[in-house]
Automatic annotation (TrEMBL):
InterPro entries: AAA+_ATPase, ABC_transporter-like_ATP-bd, ABC_transporter-like_CS, ABC_transpr_MalK-like, ABC_transpr_MalK/UgpC-like, Mo/tungstate-bd_C_term_dom, NA-bd_OB-fold, P-loop_NTPase. Residues 15-246 form the ABC transporter domain. GO terms for cellular component: ATP-binding cassette (ABC) transporter complex, substrate-binding subunit-containing. NCBIfam families: PRK11650.1. The lineage of its organism: Bacteria, Pseudomonadati, Pseudomonadota, Alphaproteobacteria, Hyphomicrobiales. Pfam families: ABC_tran. SUPFAM superfamilies: MOP-like, P-loop containing nucleoside triphosphate hydrolases. This is sn-glycerol-3-phosphate ABC transporter ATP-binding protein UgpC. Transmembrane segments: none annotated. One of its GO terms (molecular function) is ABC-type transporter activity. The gene is ugpC. Keywords: ATP-binding, Cell inner membrane, Cell membrane, Membrane, Nucleotide-binding, Sugar transport, Translocase, Transport. Belongs to the ABC transporter superfamily.
Length: 368
């Protein structure tokens, strides 16, 4: 570990939000009171649809937006009234505007120069950061002479050169093409393993969330739907909102009615046994549905509508009980179009949600 790695690791701070709220005007509350604790050194991904308050949350931590109420603590210190530069955070944006007329070195060194650091130390720090980010050979180039990925790395270098204990990212990869996004994801994960800064990474991309996060915080209209590990979010979604936001294709959700003994689909077919009465939503992931012949047990009948072959596997879309369900099947399973499909819904793979609130009802099926 070099000096920069060690300095950032030492400075990693936990972030606590107590009753933090944000309203831009009296009518619209963007963030209702929020309590959350981000552990020192943890990589948190804030995930949610556009407009749910992700950037607002990040900017309140950074100090670029004021809180309307509540407290923010970084490393145990109350910061909600401090200037951004006194909070020990560094931020990387989607539109990372580098200074086009300055070299890579000067771009990275800029904040150090402004803070009055001596030249020899600046050279040493920028050198260490550039080496860490694979930019050592590009220090004299201008941003216009770099690839998109290299420019993004310069933006990250500029953020970490001040040795922040907290790194904040707001959709930093959205402007990159697919291959570069993937490469940058791997680089960011590697960077985090090395420097261990407390990281908050905002995105609307579930793949980034699943692959980067220690824990994912899912926001829906400014409220926390679930805050847990990627595995728990995928396998034990706390609500229909989470279940439908994660997974490609997402979890199938079917309305069912209980008669005290079984849960029936809208067309009367029995989907599962459960001693429940009333209306519920039943969830099952595409890869958990078995096309008949693959398993024993209760089967329901559906009609195949269309299929998409993805090479590694196929996605079937079938009509079941008035809904369209998606089924992921291994490639090579030969299923003719418009055929009747007999489907198994293994009870251990079922998720049950309240019909109205959409909250998960753990314990009914063994998936929870
Ligand atoms: N400066 C502002 N003034 C008024 N409303 C704003 C302002 N910034 C954001 N909003 C509103 O707050 C909500 C959350 O925005 P934002 O945090 O940018 O969402 P996200 O980053 O999740 O897409 C949106 O409804 C947006 O219109
Ligand atoms: Mg945003």
């Amino acid at each position: 570990m070099n000096a920069i790695d060690m300095a950032i690791r030492a400075a990693a701070a936990n972030i606590t939000l107590n009753d933090v709220t944000k309203a831009y005007d009296t009518e619209t509350v963007v963030i209702p009171p929020m309590d959350v604790e981000l552990r020192a050194g943890e990589f948190t991904v804030v995930l949610g649809p556009s407009g749910c308050g992700k950037s607002t949350l990040l900017q309140m931590i950074a100090g670029l937006e004021r809180v309307s109420g509540g407290k923010i603590l970084i490393g145990g210190r109350e910061v909600q009234n401090l200037e951004p530069k006194h909070r020990g955070c560094a931020m990387v944006f989607q539109n990372y505007a580098l200074y086009p007329h300055m070299s890579v070195f000067d771009n990275i060194a800029y904040s150090l120069k402004v803070s009055g650091m001596a030249k020899a130390e600046r050279i040493e720090r920028v050198g260490a950061v550039a080496k860490m980010l694979g930019l050592a050979d590009y220090l004299s180039r201008k941003p216009g002479q770099l690839s998109g990925g290299q420019r993004q790395r310069v933006a990250i270098g500029r953020a970490i050169v001040r040795e922040p204990g907290v790194l904040l990212f707001d959709e930093p990869l959205s402007n990159l093409d697919a291959q570069l996004r993937h490469d940058m994801r791997v680089e960011l994960a590697e960077l985090h393993r090395r420097i261990g800064a407390t990281t908050v990474f905002v995105t609307h991309d579930q793949v980034e969330a699943m692959t980067l996060a220690d824990r994912i915080l899912i926001l829906n209209k400014g409220r926390i739907e679930q805050f847990d590990t990627p595995k728990a979010i995928y396998h034990r979604p706390a609500s229909v909102f989470v279940a439908k936001f994660i997974g490609a294709p997402p979890m199938n959700i079917l309305p069912v009615t209980g008669d005290g003994r079984v849960l029936r689909l809208a067309d009367g077919q029995v989907a599962a046994e459960a001693p429940l009465t009333g209306a519920y939503q039943l969830g099952i992931r595409p890869e958990d549905i078995l096309v008949s012949g693959q398993a024993e047990g209760r089967a329901v009948t559906s009609t195949l509508r269309f299929r998409e072959d993805l090479g590694s596997h196929a996605i079937l879309a079938a009509e079941l009980g008035g809904s369209v369900v998606r089924i992921a099947t291994p490639f090579g399973v030969d299923i003719p179009d418009h055929s009747q499909l007999s489907l198994n819904l293994p009870p251990a793979r079922l998720h049950l949600f309240d019909a109205e609130s959409g909250r998960a009802m753990p314990g009914v099926f063994s998936a929870h």
